[in-house]
Amino acid sequence: MHVAHLSLTDFRSYDTVDLGLEPGVTAFVGPNGQGKTNLVEALGYVATQSSHRVATDAPLVRHGASRAIVRSVVVRDDRRALVELEINPGRANRARLNRSPMSRPRDVIGLLRTVLFAPEDLALVKGDPSERRRFLDDLLVARAPRFAGVRADYDRVLKQRGALLRTAAQARRGSRSGRRAENDAGFAAAGAGDVLSTLEVWDAHLARQGAELLAARLELVEALRPLVAAAYASLAPGSAPASLEYRGTLSTGGDGVSPEGVSPDDVPPAPGSTAGVSTAGGQATEEQPARGPVGESANGRDAGARSVMAEHGTAGRGTTARPAAAQGTAAHKAHPAADRDTQSAAGQSAHPAVGQDAHPAAGQSVVDRGAIEQALRAALLEVRSAELERGVTLVGPHRDDLFLGLGELPARGYASHGESWSFALALRLAAYELLRADGGDPVLILDDVFAELDTQRRRRLAEFVSSAEQVLITAAVPGDVPTELAGAWFDVAEGSVTRVR
What is the pTM for the complete model shown? Predict the structure, then answer.
């Protein structure tokens, strides 16, 4: 796969630009602020319909213009496809394929697959869980475009359910007598029984869509685990081994499933209340979808990402996941209550949702979607009172995290700058290898990455990507482009893009 042509109209700083591209390495070189990243950002938008730099589409449209248009010719197996996207902030975007209108813009997702390396990738290691959820979900969509619909459906259900919970929370805080309805029966007696009935319907939708997304994430993490470990070992030889574990809001306990996201320091307090403990990473809140992740989410901290789902069925082939209590995060040390919660989770039996065998036979799925759906419904029922109190959805994949470990420690907060870069690069390289194994090289985009790396990591990354069918590089100075990656060269300056070789 490669991009043969890129055309932009009113995209970012460009009024118009037309570029002919080819397989192999292409470098865009010029001073910072001249528009290099805008070019590769446009291609990333064709692939994912989101930007790696901003959360909304408005900044993508040139100042003074009402819309932006991105056209790209994608070549795959000698077949050419013209993909056109019209970006309309505040209105519905439009897409055309080979000049034919598409009913939904997301219907063209998958025609171009990219893996983008950028300075923002440090957020995968150091940032909130939403960054890591987005990494997983974007990769899911790249591998199977139908998950764009799954994400959109889950996001829609989450918003509807969240709106209903906020309405219910307001009603629950004041019954007709002016006193709080302390339980579901009292709440219904206060005249809000219809809300509970409607909530049960949304519970079913959330569990169904959430199970689809969660099951796919679990399988993806299992596939990524050995690839990330190998890539990190190559980038940082001698460092502690890298590991991945999926941390969800479902845990197992006794005969059922218990949500872990309902301790006082894991949820926002009710309006006007002082409840809720602020932790080292900030207390969890319901937030708007940002840069691709679905729906509401908890602000990131290691203690808020605890789960035993990863301890069992998602431990991976030949790997035994460490108990959550052994992770020893700074947040645990600062908050003994959180540490006790984690310790109580350790050693519990696996839920059927993720299977009993941590070492399944090759090709055997460890995920039972039906069991996950049942577990989600049970967990939603168990936290019903807390959700009605706070007006926020406490259980589901929108609150989950991907734990990144170095040896026995979490990478977040413990990894050095160089180790963090190596881990972020390992995640992207693993994604590339996974997409490549699916069939066809994705386009590799390296946006001002080499300037951030030391000599050893720069050389190793260049070795990794040199065999890709198409590599697009941006750099501020010629010296930032490794000699191993010589190829086509464009100078970018003062709004113009000129090929010099």
Answer: 0.75
pLDDT interval class at 361 (50, 70, 90) = very low
Q: Encode 399-431 in three state secondary structure.
A: HCEEEEEECCEEHHHHCCHHHHHHHHHHHHHHH
3-state secondary structure at position 259: strand
2-113+442-499 CATH pick, 3.40.50.300, 1.10.1740.10, 3.40.50.720, 3.40.640.10 = 3.40.50.300
Amino acid code (one letter) for 362: A
**Residue 34 annotated in ligand binding:** yes
Every domain of the chain with CATH number 3.40.50.300 lies at 2-113+442-499
The answer to whether the annotation marks 374 as part of a ligand binding site is no
Residue 348 gets which letter from DSSP? Answer: P
Residue in 353, 383, 320 with CA at minimum distance from that of residue 218: 353
Tell me which H or E stretch contains 42.
Answer: helix 36-48
Kindly report, residue by residue over 82-140, the tens digit of the pLDDT.
999 999 998 999 999 999 999 999 999 999 999 999 999 999 999 999 999 999 999 99
253 is in an annotated binding site: no
Decide if 6 contacts 75 (C-beta within 8 A).
no
- Is 38 a known ligand-binding residue? no
Which residues touch 195 (CB under 8 Å, ≥6 apart)?
Answer: 164, 167, 168, 171, 187
Residue 32 annotated as lining a ligand binding site: yes
